[in-house]
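Quick illustration, no need to memorize.
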Amino acid sequence: MKKGLVIKSTGSWYNVLLEDGITMPCRIIGKFRLNGKSLTNPVAVGDEVEVEQADKEEVGNIVKILPRKNYIVRQSPRKKHYLHLIASNVDQAVIVMTIIEPMLKQGFIDRFILMAESHKVPCIVVFNKLDVYGEDEMMMANYFKKMYEGIGYPTYIVSAIEGDGMEELRAVMTNKTTLVSGQSGVGKSTLLNALLPDLELRTFELSESSGKGQHTTTFAQMYVRQEDQSRIIDTPGIKNLSFNNLEPADVAHNFIEFFTASKDCKFDDCSHINEPKCAVKDGLEDGSISELRYGNYLKIIDEINDQNYWERHS
């Protein structure tokens, strides 16, 4: 039996870096579940596993997953009653976005933060493509930087092409395992190439007809920056995030500025929607709570409530 680290997932096969430095392709033996939930992929990049070599083959079988420090999971985009394991044993998660090319979808940032917060993973916001920003885009980027840093999320405005802000971003990844994700077209592959000069990931231009990017990553993979042993997990571009695996109370709990304000709500179980003497709604009035964040919160709550109780608990 050998121990190893899962560094690549292609669906049915996993590349495992063994303790002796050899990378072995492995399959799964047996069924694995997560807290009783069904998974579309029971093993994730970042998992520490035990492997036994298959007879007369240069492949192995994953027979045990060692205890996880943490993990990030999302609702499966294809099977709504299943969960999709994105990565495990991560120190932080980076969401890469742009103001333009493609146009910013700020609600996606809040959804990504909710996904990370739900599993106690610190989140960092990165606005890429500074090199194409005009005065209006720069003003918008600085507005969001102030907003997100004001509630505790470090935010960087960078140009992966020109190098602006990349040293600061590289520094916060030093000696950590970082999950990097984002929607297609935001320049994630270009950013990773800048962070990992020997990587040479494929990049694509935006489609002129749709203004959208093409997915350049089709599977999760871990890369190691040799000079400081930082581990970076690249994930496929995410089109959308749904949360039928959460309860409305979970959403309120993980919008951290709402949770902080809620100690002053009249009701302990305040949903911050229709209740009187709600500190979150008071925050909307005095400007301490972002209307954009609150609007995204309401949309997520509505989506969860659109699924009836039995669907969400089946």
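The chain is about 25% helix and 25% strand.
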